[in-house]
Design a protein that fits this description.
InterPro entries: AAA+_ATPase, AAA_14, P-loop_NTPase. By secondary structure, the protein is α/β, with parallel strands linked by helices. The protein contains 15 helices and 12 strands.
Length: 396
């Protein structure tokens, strides 16, 4: 039996008015699949994707059930038994949010998929345990990742206009014309500056005044709830993870200094390394490892906050260089492999080398590299192999 509380909660949530803007992932998901997963960071809009589909799929409300596994009424609820009851009563679409909060969910989803003619769409944290569980669902589930908003999506939300997404090779080969096209509609630098402060998470639309406090809540919940439970981190050690975030906020984007970080956080390197892996899985930091023949066990990594909004939530004066590099990595890493490079800042897909800097950045450091590019901030339109930083926000 499905509890009345779950049914009432589902009805209330499904009846809510959803944002008109639909993220790019809607066009990439084949909603004809029987078992679909959406993973991503807290606050990136996974729930909205579920509910927007529910309201546009053409099914009667009674045929749809939405449940959130972090709801108190879901404690000790058997997912398979719930799905069986829902199916027997005529259900057709089961939406499961925060599925990583349900222990052993993979075996339940597998059984549901193999037993019932029922479509299931679930969402969950991008953390490592979810990845491990999803491995058991290969061949049965199609799982998509939803990153934070791109600059392109933010500009669409802000202006109501549509902007094309460009592949990286197109930007490298034709960036001046692409930038000119965008400039016909808006002032990209103006939008870019706003995005750096509050454009990464869709919930900024709810209230700009409360955005920072809500983002801090996302950070704290990710650490105190998600990472603590997923990785069995001692509650007394959680402040060390938060301290690490503060350190990254205001320091130069240099190679990872093992001894400095370990001393600053007050823990050994092996322990700190495990913390970093968990924070990367929780979409709080980017760990950029060496590439192009540099991938060795002892090679230091570059460490950045996951997106630029985290900088402004965590400290009053973010490091400009770290901001620039965080934006670049956050916009590229969804579709491309980004590694550290000894001659530039980043190596992308083991081919292109990028050096990130201000308006005066030149190609001097990459003069001998045929696929080397300078990514320049505070420039509206580039020239040659000098490309505006903001334009890399048009990739998805």
């Amino acid at each position: 039996m499905i509890s009345p509380i779950l049914r009432q909660t589902s009805a209330l949530i499904l009846a809510r008015r959803q944002p008109e803007y639909r993220r790019f992932l809607h066009t990439r998901i084949d909603f004809g699949e029987q078992l679909i997963g959406i993973k991503g960071a807290r606050g990136c809009g996974k729930t909205t994707v579920l509910l927007q589909h529910a309201q546009s799929c053409g099914l009667e409300a009674s045929r749809i059930l939405y449940i959130a596994c972090d709801h108190p009424a879901m404690v000790d609820v058997d997912l398979y038994a719930l799905a069986q009851t829902f199916y027997q009563e005529g259900g057709q679409l089961l939406l499961i949010d925060e599925i990583h909060k349900s222990k052993g969910f993979a075996i339940h989803l597998k059984a549901i998929r193999d037993t019932f003619d029922l479509q299931v769409i679930f969402s969950g944290s991008s953390a490592l345990r979810l990845e491990h569980e999803l491995a058991d669902l290969s061949r049965r589930a199609v799982v998509h990742e939803l990153p934070v908003l791109s600059l392109r999506e933010f500009m669409e939300i802000e202006t109501g206009q549509r902007f094309a997404a460009y592949a990286l090779p197109d930007i490298l080969a034709n960036h001046a014309n692409l930038a000119a096209n965008v400039m016909q509609t808006l002032r990209p630098i103006e939008q870019f500056k706003k995005y750096l402060h509050y454009g990464a998470y869709p919930f900024y639309r709810e209230s700009l005044d409360n955005y920072t406090s809500k983002l801090l809540e996302v950070i704290n919940l990710t650490i105190d709830s998600d990472l603590a439970s997923l990785y069995s981190i001692d509650p007394g050690k959680l402040d060390k993870l938060k301290k690490l975030l503060y350190m990254l906020c205001s320091t130069d984007p240099v190679e990872l200094n093992i001894s400095k970080l370990s001393a600053g956080v007050g823990t050994s390197w092996p322990t700190l390394s495990r913390y970093l892996d968990s924070m990367s899985a929780g979409s709080l930091v980017h760990i950029v490892r060496g590439g192009g023949g540099m991938r060795t066990v002892n090679k230091p990594d570059k460490l950045l906050l996951d997106n630029t909004n985290l900088f402004y939530a965590l400290c009053a004066s973010p490091n400009v260089g770290s901001l620039r590099e965080s934006f670049f990595v956050s916009q590229l890493s969804y579709q491309y492999q980004v590694h550290y490079h000894d001659k530039g800042d980043f190596l992308v897909d083991d081919r292109w080398v990028f050096e990130i800097g201000g308006a005066g950045k030149t190609l001097k450091q990459l003069a001998q590299h045929p696929d080397g590019y300078a990514v320049v901030d505070d420039v509206v339109i580039g020239d040659g192999r000098r490309i505006p930083l903001w334009l890399f926000g048009m990739l998805y």
